[in-house]
Amino acid sequence: MIGLALRRTVRGLATLVGVAAVVFLLMNAAPGDPASLSLGRQAGRGAASPGAVAAFRAEYGLDRPLPARFAAWLRRAALLDFGRSLQDGRPVRERIGETLPATVALNVSGLALGLLIALPVGIVAARRRGGLFDRASGLALDLLFASPPFVIGLALLLLFAVRFRLFPVLGGVDEGPAGFVLPVLALALGAAAPAARVVRSILVEAFGSSAAAAGRARGDDAAAEVARAMHRSGAQLAALVATLLPVTVAGSVLVERLFSVRGTGALLAEAVFSRDTPTVLGLTLLAAGVVVAGSIVSDLAAAALDPRLAGGARTVTGPEAAR
Amino acid sequence: MRHLPSGLRRALLAAGVFPLLALAAPFVATSRPWVPGAPGRAALTAPVPYDPDAVVLEGRLSPPGRAHWLGTDELGRDVLARVIHGSRVSVGAGLLAALIAVTAGIGVGALAGFTGGLTDRAALFSIDVVQAVPPLVLVAAGAAFFPASGLTAPLLIGLTGWTASARLVRAEARRVGTEDFVESVRAAGASRWRILARHVLPHASGSAVAGAPYVLADAVMTEASLSFLGVGVPPPTASWGRAIADARGSFSEGWWCAAAPAVALLLFLLSARALGEALSSLESPENR
Predict the structure, then answer these.
(1) What's the Rg (C-alpha) of chain A?
(2) Quick check: A268 and B137 CB within 8 A?
(3) pLDDT at residue B287, rounded to an integer
(4) What pLDDT does residue A117 have?
(5) Per-residue pLDDT for B136 more than 50?
(6) What is the pLDDT of residues A109-131, one digit of tens each?
(7) Which B-chain residues 57-96 have CB contacts (< 8 A) with chain A?
(8) Domain that holds residue B161
C-alpha cells in the first residue's frame, strides 16, 4: 500500500512536470516577446525603452538558456509562485487565491450533488435492467451526457430564472445562496450523466455475478443485495471520482461564465482573452494538479477497498471509462 | 447506401444534415434573391432571405414569427440565418479537429503498441500528460498563446484530442503484433515498417475509426465551449457558442437568441454520437 502510494505519487509528479514542460514550451514558442509585451502593457500604449526591456529580461531571467529558465520557473512554480499577472501586475497566486473559494465551493457541491443523483439512478436502473425506469433514465442521461455544461445551465436558467423567476438570472456569491443553486445544479447534472451510466454498468455486472446469485440463494433481500454489490464494486466506484474530476473542473469554467460567478474559471477565460500568460499557466498547472491528485487519491482508495489492486493490478481511470 | 444496415443508414443521414447545411449556408440564408425579378422585387428569394451579419437596430429582439422564424438578436440580426451560418464553424472546426486527432491517435497508438519498449513508455507518458489537464482548459490555455483565427481552435483541439484513439489503437496493436499471421510475415522477411503499415495498422485502427464520431462530438463541444468563452473564432463570424454567450445580457427579453443555437448544437452533438454508436456496434457485433 505504501509502495503503491509512493509509486503513484512519483508518477503523478512526473506527469505534472511533463504538463509544466509542455506549457512552458508553448509559452516560449508563442509569437511576441514577453518583456516588451508586459512593459508595453503596463506603460499603456507605446514601446518600452531598451534599458527597461533589458532590466525586465534580466529580472525574469529571460536572457538565460531555455533549460535553465525552465528549471528556475519550475522551482518557483513548485512553491506556487507563478509570477505577476500581465493585466494588473499583481502576483498570480493572489489573483487565484481570491477566486478559488467560489470555484472550490462550486466544484465540491456540484460533484457531491452529482453523485447523490447518480448513485440512486444507477442503482435503480441496474436493478430493473430494461424496465421503464432504466429506459427513461437512459434516454435522459444520454441527452444530458451529450449536452455541454453551458447548454445544461442555459436550460436551467431559461426555465427557473426567466420562466418561473425563482432564482436571479446572474448568480455569484454576491447574490447570496440563491445565486449558487443553479450553477451547482448545472454542474451536478453534467457530472451525474457519466456517473450514473458508469454506476449502472458496474452494478449490472455485480448483480449478474455468481457472488450475487449466492447471496440471493442465501436469502438476501433487495437492500442487502444492493449493499453487497456496492461493497464488491467499491474499487470501481472509487475510480469513478477520478473520472469525474476533469469533467467538473472543465464544466465549472463554462458554468462560471454563464452565471457570472467570480471563480478561477472566469479568471481563466479573462486571462486567455487578454493573453495574460502567467495567469493562464498558473491556472493550467492548478487544474492539472487537482486532476492528478484526484486520480492518486482515488487509486489509493480503490487499493484500500480491493487489496488485489495494491499488488499492481490496474483499473481504468481515464476519461474513456465514462464513454 | 442500400446495402448498409438500417441503423447505420439512419445515423449517417442524421449526421449528414448539419454538414450539408454548412455547405449550403451561403445559398440557404442570404438576402440575395435566387431569381431576381423586376428592380427592387425578387421573383424567388432564398428560404431565409437575410444575411447573417445584417444589423437592423430598429428590429432588435423581435420574437419568432412570420418574418423572422426564430426571431432577431440584440442587434436585429436574423437568428435563423446566424444559426445556419454558425454551423459552418462547428462543422468545419469539428471535422478538421477530429481528422487531426484520429490520425495522430492511430499513428501514435500503432507505433507505440507495435514497437513497445521505450517508444511505448514515452507514448504512455505523453498520454498521461495530456490527459492530466481537462481538454477545455488545455485548449483554452493554448488559445492564449496563438493568434486568434479560424484555424487556431481546430488545430489545438486536434493536437490535444488524440489520446483516447491512441489508447484504443495501442492496445489493439499490441494484440495484433503477437498474432501468427504477423509472425509469418516477419518470417517471410518483411521489414518492421512494412508489417506496421500493411498488417498492424489495418487491423488495429478499426475501433479508433468507429470511435471517430465520438471524437468529432468532443471536438464540436470543445469548439463551442471556446467560442462561448469568447476565445474561439473571432467575431463577427457567426458561431453557436458565441451566440449563446452574447445572449446572456438579454435572457429575459430574448430567450430565443440563446435557445436556437443551443438546440442546434445539441442536435449536431446527438447526431454525431448516434453515428458513433451505429459504427461501434458494427465494429464489435457482440456489443449490439
Answers:
(1) 24
(2) yes
(3) 47
(4) 95
(5) yes
(6) 999 999 999 999 999 999 888 88
(7) none
(8) 6-12+83-287
Please give the full DSSP string across B70-87, using - where no structure is assigned: T-B-TTS-BHHHHHHHHH
- Residue A231's pLDDT is 86
pLDDT digits (tens, 9 = 90+) for A138-149: 999 989 999 999
Q: Which single residue is written with the C-alpha cell 451526457?
A: A145
Backbone angles phi, psi at A188, to 5 degrees: -65, -45
Residue B140, domain CATH: 1.10.3720.10
Across chain A, what does the average pLDDT equal? 82
Chain A residue with minimal CA distance to B225?
A: A254
Q: Is the pTM of this model over 0.90?
A: no
Cell of B17: 444534415
Nearest Cα residue in chain B from A18: B129
Check A31 against B221: CB less than 8 A apart.
no
Q: How far is B44 from chain A (nearest CA, A)?
A: 37
Facing A169 at nearest CB: one of B225, B251, B265: B251
Q: Where are the alpha helices (DSSP H) in chain A?
A: 2-29, 34-42, 50-59, 66-78, 92-127, 132-146, 149-156, 178-207, 210-218, 222-232, 234-258, 264-273, 277-305, 307-310
Q: What pLDDT band is residue A13 in, cutting at 50, 70 and 90?
A: very high
CA distance B230 to chain A (A): 7
- CA B288, CA B275: separation in Å to the nearest integer? 14
- In this predicted structure, the answer to whether residue B247 has a pLDDT above a threshold of 80 is yes
Residue B17 lies in a domain: no
pLDDT tops 60 at residue A312: no
Domain boundaries, chain A: 32-79, 93-322
Reported confidence tier of residue A176, pLDDT bands at 50, 70, 90: low
Tell me what the mean pLDDT of segment A27-39 comes to: 65
CA distance B257 to chain A (A): 11
Which of B46-55, B176-185, B187-196 has the weakest average pLDDT? B46-55
Report how many domains make up chain B: 1
Task: Scan residues 161-180 of B and list those with Cβ closer than 8 Å to A.
Answer: 164, 167-168
Selected residue of A16, A19, A33, A272 to mutate for chain B interface (largest B Cβ count, 10 A): A272
Pull the grid cell for residue B52: 447573417
Chain A hits for B138, CB-CB cut-off 8 Å, are 284
B230 vs A: CB within 8 A = yes
Q: Minimal Cα–Cα distance from A190 to chain B, Å?
A: 13
Q: Which of B132, B136, B143 sits opposite A253 (nearest CB)?
A: B136
**Phi, psi (5° rounding) for residue A84?**
-105, 145
Classify domain A93-322 at the CATH class level. mainly alpha
- Contacts with A311 (C-beta within 8 Å, 6 or more apart), sequence order: none
Verify whether the Cβ–Cβ distance A29 to B269 is below 8 Å.
no
Say which residue the cell 522551482 belongs to: A75
